[in-house]
């Protein structure tokens, strides 16, 4: 009910927040070709043929400016494979952000290692001071850095801190495929960049992922780990064969390859990605502009040194109680706007808090708790028009007014 204050009929948004675009026709045709010839396994090639996966790896390496790229089964697999390739062992400690998604601590747990969570700043990036503290207190030599929701920290400073402490960096670029920090593409600061091609990311193969690296030894290990058997010479974006001579004896096979059907679907999407990024950012800016100066709601400013991909948007409801946040998101939901809250005590759908991963020893991150308590997240699929995004922002704004304007009068600290 609207307390009688708003007699005009309200706009409702009817789009789906989980509906992505169709696969480009070119990708469908290429996938049908692969099915017709039947050589779906990446190492199953006819005489003189280069597999779709090997071609895609070459194109992806070029896209992100890496020497080497490896197609794998998922983003989660890419992270686990990177940890194995750096020889992280059971019981080792691995640093990561307190604000991330379940596959990140999951990858650490998959090798028997223990996540050590680092606080997150108000701009949603890893807190570099706390990182230095946790490096010293944990003795960890590996950081699995999650560029969660595409927010990039000061990567120059981060690399200085990590290099000085001999900490190797693996970047989780599930939300930064196509983003850059300064002139450097996201994923190219650390030893490995990890990417996902799951339906809700920037390329859609249903499932899939990539690892990129400039480190020949580490990438040779990753290739053998991914299940190359002794067929690594069929790769293109790979280290020279000599690099495999030693490691082929000592590297286990933990199969997680990409197949030619997925690669066929992905290659035309990769060519379109720069246009898609522009389209995402047009939509992002439409929502961001519509939300600025909304009572009770803080838009998250992005560092100008980073170029982001606006495939989702976040904002804060500082100082609001769980009940207030729930009421507000329920009001938006009634008008078709699906918001996710990262502060909920119970994990819901894709959204969970670090303290809900109970296989990890209990840790306390007071700053991150405060932040997540008011953190709202919204997807921006490209099936939305810019006009749709303006309507979505207007709905959020109106509901924030209704929900929070009285709160602001009561509380001098809010807003
Ligand atoms: C989706 C996602 C991943 C992993 O991707 P999958 O391909 O689903 O395994 C990793 N990190 C973040 C932050 C993600 O959102």
List the main descriptive attributes of the protein structure presented here.
binds pyridoxal-5'-phosphate, four-stranded antiparallel sheet, alpha/beta, 415 residues, single chain, 12 helices, 13% strand, 39% helix, seven-stranded mixed sheet
Beta-strand content bin:
5-15%
Ligand inventory reads: pyridoxal-5'-phosphate
Task: Give the helix/strand class.
Answer: alpha/beta
For the report, how would you describe the main beta sheet?
A: 7 strands, mixed
Shape, principal axes of CA atoms: globular
Fraction of residues in helix: 25-40%
Low-confidence stretches: none
Strand neighbour order, sheet with most strands: 1-9-8-5-4-2-3
Rg, alpha carbons: 22 Å
Q: Span from first to last CA?
A: 24 Å
Which H/E pattern describes the elements? HHEHEHEHEHEEEEEHHHEEEHEHEH
Q: How many DSSP E strands?
A: 14
Q: Could you report the average pLDDT, rounded to the nearest whole number?
A: 94
Number of helices: 12
Task: Give a brief rundown of this model.
This protein is of the alpha/beta class and 415 residues long. The protein is built from twelve helices and 14 strands.
